[in-house]
Write a structure and sequence with these properties.
Number of helices: 2
Order of helices and strands: EHHEEEE
Helix content: 10-25%
Number of strands: 5
Number of domains: 1
Distance between the termini: 23 Å
Largest sheet: 5 strands, antiparallel
Shape: globular
C-alpha cells in the first residue's frame, strides 16, 4: 500500500529530505520531530541529503525542453520503500521483502 505525502518542493516549500521525514512520520503516526535517532536511523545512512535536495532543486530550476520527465529516486528507509518524484510527490510503501535490489537507485 502506498501513501503519497502532502509536502512538495516543486513550489519551493519543502526540500525532498524534509518531505521524506514528514511522509515517514505520517505513515508511522508520529510527530515529525520524533523521526530522529535513536528511535530512527539518520536519513543520511541511506542517502546523501544534500545531493538529493540539490538533484531536485536543479531539476526544478532547469527549463523544460520537450516532454516533461518524471525523475525519481527510490530508496529503502526504516522498512519502507520511498519513491521521491521530481514533481514533489513522496510515496511510502512497506517493503515486500521480495526484491532487495532497490536501494538508492536513480532513474528518469
Amino acid at each position: 500500500m502506498s501513501s503519497p505525502a502532502d509536502p512538495s518542493w516543486s513550489d519551493g516549500a519543502v526540500d525532498p529530505t524534509q518531505a521524506i521525514i514528514e511522509a515517514v512520520a505520517a505513515r508511522e503516526g508520529v510527530d515529525v520531530t520524533d523521526v530522529e535517532p535513536p528511535a530512527y536511523e539518520p536519513l543520511y545512512t541511506v542517502v546523501n541529503p544534500e545531493a538529493l535536495d540539490r538533484l531536485f532543486q536543479t531539476q526544478a530550476q532547469t527549463p523544460s525542453v520537450g516532454p516533461s520527465v518524471d525523475a525519481r529516486v527510490v530508496l529503502e528507509y526504516e522498512g519502507y520503500e520511498i519513491v521521491v518524484h521530481s514533481d514533489g510527490r513522496v510515496e511510502v510503501s512497506e517493503l515486500s521483502g521480495i526484491d532487495d535490489s532497490v536501494d538508492g537507485s536513480i532513474s528518469s
